[in-house]
Amino acid sequence: MRLILVGPPGAGKGTQAVHLASNFAIPHISTGDIFRFNIKGQTPLGLLAKSYMDKGDLVPDSVTNDMVKDRLTHPDTKNGFLLDGYPRNIEQADFLAAVLKENATPLDAVLEFSLENAEIIKRLSGRRVCRGCAAISHVEFDKPKVAGLCDACGGELYQRDDDKEEVIANRLAVYAQQTEPIINYYKKSGLLKTISAVGGVLDIAARAIDALK
Length: 213
Ligand code: AMP
Known about the structure:
By secondary structure, the chain is an alpha/beta fold. It has helices spanning 13-24, 31-40, 44-53, 61-71, 90-103, 117-126, 165-179, 181-188, 201-211, and strands at 2-6, 28-30, 81-84, 109-114, 127-130, 136-138, 157-158, 192-196.
């Protein structure tokens, strides 16, 4: 299964990606996670990415495209992959199409998660991420058993800088202007499947797997 997840920030792509990757036994490739990993390791890529991410802007295509192209050469992608957070504009979608054509590995589906802006803001502002294992929780909707600590590994939970209110507005604007056009792009190619991102994590996961049958 070669799959792309698309949807506004906070729609639950990261959470659902974990379920879907496990269900289809494919690697979960999140460009946001790769950037955050590099920020944590203070690599040159991390320093560059941080300057864009902190503002809610996209990291330049020249950097992101090559990073994904390289990731798709890893042997674990042989039986498929799940791309979470990439492509995020038409240029990236065109670049990916060329890479997949060259590799003779066509996409199977593009799964869109749809959600209202008011709900997105509630989800993003309460979202917390584990410093240890990157698991996602929410201060209200998916409370950890012990406040501030990850249920999965006991690591410290933190709020992403780009989940702070002042950055959320820009991320939503960037999504509307740059990312939304790719929905029509994939609709035209007949690959798009859209599901509602409202409801419990397991309900949405079941809906997603059903849509991909
Ligand atoms: P995410 O974890 O997917 O919400 O991504 C967090 C941030 O990483 C985004 O707001 C961007 O600054 C950057 N980012 C992630 N994926 C991409 C991408 N495909 N193109 C450009 N920037 C990206």
